[in-house]
Write a structure and sequence with these properties.
It is built from two helices and no strands. By secondary structure, the chain is mainly alpha-helical.
Length: 104
């Protein structure tokens, strides 16, 4: 095949669409509407993401404060446990010193 025949065959395979100016304007208007809708959706998504990030910061800050409060509570519970153990030991020693175990 010659080069001209190859070019003409390749152009035969590509569909060519002709449209009027009115149809083109309608298509452009429809495309502009779609682009505007997509841009609006993108802005809403960006805003929603920013709000979600702020909520996430608030939640993380709240959990950090809860962690600090739990550490304080654990410290107080630990002191109470030691106080109870010391009281039990003190009571036992008091009984021993008074001779309370001899009568048993």
């Amino acid at each position: 095949m010659s080069e001209d025949e190859t070019k003409s065959q390749s152009f035969d395979r590509v569909p060519v669409y002709y449209t009027t100016v009115g149809e083109a304007e309608t298509l452009v208007t429809a495309l502009m509407t779609r682009v505007e809708t997509l841009e609006l959706s993108m802005r809403e998504m960006v805003t929603e993401r920013a709000v979600d990030q702020e909520k996430q910061k608030f939640i993380e800050d709240r959990f950090n404060r809860l962690d600090l409060r739990l550490v304080k509570i654990e410290g107080h519970v630990s002191r109470l446990v030691w106080l109870i153990i010391a009281t039990i030991i003190g009571t036992g020693m008091s009984l021993i010193m008074r001779g309370g175990l001899i009568t048993l």
